[in-house]
Write a structure and sequence with these properties.
Helix content is about 15%, strand content about 45%. With about 180 residues, it is mostly beta strands. The radius of gyration is 17 Å and the shape is globular. It starts with a helix and ends in an 8-residue tail after the last helix.
């Protein structure tokens, strides 16, 4: 969370430690048709500046296997992965997310729907070692390519430059109200 001072000075802000606030944000996290992510707080929208992607996923042990869960505890179903010039791993896949299909009228969330859509998530850096155990990598240009195993399937790992992510996956990193 970044207060006015942090925003004015381009500082990273502070991690939200309050459990109830984290749960509130997760319950009300959504995006609009333009690709702006926000959380709805009554009639007010709090737009989210995205450092990388709309989602961050963790590899979580589940039933003798692994699951991918977002920061909102939403299941993320992978279809592949991308690796950027800094060694970040992004998981591409399907997620059931809250969408505002309002198209700009002031309905205060009356047109929110749940929709499965293709999205992208940054793999949390604490899970990079575990991911590398699932992957077969080879160097490509300024990144890595290869494949990784997920629930008996072989999924691709392709290179990407980080500045291509928002355009390719349709999200706005620094939305304006």
């Amino acid at each position: 969370m970044r207060d006015e001072f942090a925003q004015a000075n381009n500082l990273p802000g502070n991690a939200i430690q309050h459990t109830a606030l984290n749960e509130f944000i997760a319950r009300n996290y959504a995006c609009d048709l333009e690709g702006k992510y926000f959380f709805q707080n009554g009639p007010q929208r709090v737009f989210i500046t995205l450092d990388a992607t709309p989602w961050i996923v963790r590899l979580i042990p589940a039933n003798r296997d692994l699951s991918l869960l977002t920061q909102c505890q939403t299941l993320f179903e992978p279809q592949g992965a991308l690796s950027d010039e800094s060694g970040n791993i992004y998981i591409t896949g399907l997620i059931n997310q809250t969408m505002d299909e309002d198209r700009g009228s002031a309905s205060e969330g009356k047109d929110f729907i749940q929709r499965e859509s293709l999205s992208i998530a940054l793999l949390h850096d604490h899970d990079l070692d575990l991911f590398s155990d699932l992957a077969k990598l080879h160097e490509q240009a300024c990144s890595f390519g290869g494949s990784w195993s997920w629930h008996g399937k072989t999924l691709p790992i392709d290179p990407i430059h980080s500045n291509e992510l928002s355009k390719r996956f349709g999200f706005i990193q620094k939305p304006k109200p």
